[in-house]
Structures are given as structure tokens and as C-alpha cells.
Amino acid sequence: MPAPTKHHLIIGDCTKTKKILDFPAIDLLLTSPPYFNAPFDYSDLFHNYETFLGMVDKFGKLYFKTLKPGGIVGLNIDDMLIEGVKYPIISDILKIFSNIGYLLKGKIIWRKPEGYIRISRRSGVLLQNPYPMYYYPDNLLEVILIFQKPSHMNLTSNKIMYFEDIWEMTNVLPLKGRLETNIAAFPEELPRRLINIFTTKGSWVCDPFLGSGTTMKVARELRRHSIGVEILEQLLPIIKMKIGFTSENLTSYLDLDQLIINNLQPDEKEDEINHQVSSHSLLPLALKKHKSLNNEYKYHLLLLDCRNISKNALNESFFKLINKLFPGRILAVMFESLNNSSNILALNQVTDSIMRHGLRLRDRITVQHQPDWHWEVITNYKTRVVFHHCFYEVFLFQKGKFNYKGKSIREKQDCLINKRQFQKEKWYLTLWDFRNQPRNECDSIVTSRLLELFLFNDEIICTNIKQISCSQRRFSTEYFTLR
User: Fold this and answer.
1) What distance in Å separates the CA atoms of residue 94 and residue 89, rounded to the nearest whole number?
2) Of 152, 164, 220, 257, which one has the greatest count of Cβ atoms within 10 A?
């Protein structure tokens, strides 16, 4: 008979009680924080973006203490689009968690079925106006950031597990009558995979933003102990039903499992988090209207391959190029979020550097290709987890807003985008799928698409990519070098 498991359900605010430190040390912290003021999740939950990041900072610091050395964090999160503003949540969380002391080990992309999403108003804008600069892709992706708490132990492995770092999972669909009504629950497959990968039977799994109890349910099924924290007491009956601690569904060996419910009072005033904020993001600077000191605009598109450049490469000479970018136009950055060198730029460093010069994040495109290298995590359980890396990302930054009226009908008609090709090749999605092609072959397709989407005829592109070609556009090219 399998050993019984313990499950602590805590009703309270996970950021405001240090009593969580009295519970067993955690092997895997797996959670999805409430998305910042998402209309489909908790609209207007936070006073402002800094309040949200302040919550992330407090939660990160407190649970850093609860993790075992070598313990793993799986954080399901994504950038958020609200009222036309793209909030760089991933970049800002990377900065916060890095400052706390977490080590970024990897990044997993999980894609939802294409049937889940239809062409929305964002991508529909281009279908109605098939001209450059009208491109807004639909997002069917979310991100799982993998962090590890540093360990002084020499972690060795006697077992190897292999995976790819793009996962396909069906999300929880908003069907009538489901248990998670009005709750943004992630699919059970997500915690199941992460728990199986990073823990063994008898490990402790924690979800500080429990919601309907998905993580605890899966942990129990996999014979792990669990700790769940949920601020909404009215969810208690739903959580108990979901994880199987009601009189109707206690069966067989699960009878011996224990559910311990704690109602913890906060150690500080309820509204204190809304007053303890600091500057975690440069978003306000990017949204601020800047008056350029130099009106000698020259470039209509900047295309930067930033995948293997050093930390000191984004120097003053590059930022002079940004000043020459026309208002409303695009800086496209091809970036590798993961690398094996501490001398390579991190995502938050790139984002901060660019936003400091008045550009805002507009969109992010993930380019899937054949696996070409790997990243790995060695767990406390002597398991070497190897992820075959099969994507890079293109970050689109914009310098203010584009003046569509600045282009004549003739100029637009000369640069029509093929709508049939647009839909057939699924340009409207944030995932450009070239999984059967090597990365270097994807590059030429990606750069060609970017020119189609953001460049008119007879305009000037500035880039550090040596081979640029696009049969559909007439343009001039200037090259620069990042050292």
C-alpha cells in the first residue's frame, strides 16, 4: 500500500504571513500568480503595475526561504496586453527573481490548441487593412520560467530525462458547469509534467496561488505532499471537492491521506502591499512621450540579431541608431532567452536598455525550429533533466504610435500583404512554426516576414544581419556591428 500523504490547505494571503516558514521545506514551488489586472482573471485587482510587481517581489522573497537548497520554481506567467499597453511581465519578473537570488535555469513555452483561438480584432486589423504596420498577432502561448535555488551541495546525477522545451497542452476551456467557473485554472497536465520531472514520491510541492486546487489535486494523485495557499475562503468547498477530501470521494488507499486546513491571519495590514512599492519596471519611461533632441530621423525599421552578443554590446553607438528611428516605427530584436554564458545579455537587460530610450514592448513572436542545443537542470533527487532547445524569440518594440494617415492610399496599395498567404502560413499567431527546419533556415524566412509586415517601399532598414533579402519590397539597407 502506498504511503499516505499530507496536504496543508492555508486560507490567507501568501505574501503576508511568515508562518509559512513553519511548514516543511519545499522541493518544488509551482504556481501561476494572478495576471496583472487581466480582464479574464482579476480585473482591477492591483492599484497599478508597480503594486503587482511589489506583490511578486514579496512573494519571491518569502518563498525563497521556504525552498530547499537546489529546490525548483516553475512559474507560469506571460506578458499582458491591457487597453493597448503590453506589460513586460516576464522581463520584470526575471529581474526581480534574479535580484532575490534565484538562478534562471530555463524557459518552457506551452502552446494551446489553435482551435482555442480564432482570428481576433488584433490580427483582424491586418486582414481589413493588409498593409505594413497593421500587424498585431494573436497569442496562443504561455511561458513557464524555471528557477532554482542555489545549493552548496555538489549535485550529481545517476538518471537522465529528456524533453523538448515547447509543450503542447489543452488549456481549461470555459465550459458551462465546470468546477473552475470564474477561476483562471491551468490544465492538470502542466503540474503533472513538472511534478513528475522535478520531484519524487514523498516530495513537498507548494502552490502559493492555489485557485481551485489543481496543483494539490495532481500532487496527491502522484503521491507527493502538498501545501496550497488561497486568499479566497469561498473557494474552500471547491478545493476540497477537487482534491478529493469530501465524504463522497474518499476511496481506497486515499482514505489515509490527511488534509489540514489552516486559516492564517496576516502579519501586516491588508493594504500595506499597495504602499510598499518600488521601481521594478521601466514601462512608465517607455510610455512617456519623449521629445527627441535630434530630429534627423533616418531609419524606418531597426532589425537587431541579439542572440549572441556580449553585455557591453548595446553601447552608446547603438542607442544613437534608436534616436534615428522614425516615430511610430519598429525595433525588432531576435533574442535567445537562454544561453550558457554569463557574458551574454539577459532578457531583462535588453528590455530595460531599450525601454530606457523610450520604446515600448509591442509584441513577442516565438520561432520554433529543429532542436539545436540543450539546457539542463540537476535536481536534488540526482536526476539530470535535459531539455532540447527548439525556439528563439523576436521582440517587437515600438517608438510611440504610428501615423497611418502619413501614408497615401497609393503607397499602401504598392505594399499589399497577401492575405491568403498570411492565413495559410499562420502569420497571425505568436508562434511561427518551422519545427522541421534548422534555425539558420528559419532566419531568412523570419527576416523576410518582418520586412513585409513593417516596411513600405523605398524605406531604409538598419541591421546587423549581413544577408537581408525580400522580393516584395524595395528598400535600402545600412549595416552596423555590435561588438
Assistant:
1) 8
2) 220
- Cβ neighbours of 209 (radius 10 Å): 18
Q: Is the pLDDT of residue 270 over 50?
A: no
Report pLDDT for 107: 94
| One-letter amino acid of 389 | H
Question: CATH code for 6-102+149-274?
Answer: 3.40.50.150
The architecture that CATH gives domain 284-373+390-479 is: 3-Layer(aba) Sandwich (3.40)
**How far is residue 188's CA from residue 110's CA, in Å, rounded to a whole number?**
13
Is residue 351 a contact partner of residue 325, using CB atoms and an 8 Å limit? no
What lies within 8 Å, CB to CB, of 478 at 6+ separation is 299, 460, 461, 462, 463
| Cell numbers standing for residue 101 | 537570488
List pLDDT tens digits, range 399-442.
999 999 889 999 999 999 999 999 999 999 999 999 999 998 99
Domain(s) of CATH 3.40.50.150: residues in the chain: 6-102+149-274, 284-373+390-479
Beta-bridged to residue 226, according to DSSP, are 7, 205
Separation in Å, CA 31 to CA 59, 116, 216, 257: 11, 23, 11, 23
Nearest to 76 by CA among 268, 207, 197: 207
347 confidence band (pLDDT: 50, 70, 90): confident
d(CA 155, CA 177): 47
Hey, how many other C-beta atoms are within 10 angstroms of the C-beta on 420?
A: 7
CA angle 58, 108, 338 (to 5 degrees): 85
Query: What is the pairing mode between strands 103-111 and 141-148?
Result: antiparallel
How many residues are given for the chain? 483
pLDDT in tens, 5-39: 999 999 988 888 778 888 999 999 999 998 887 66
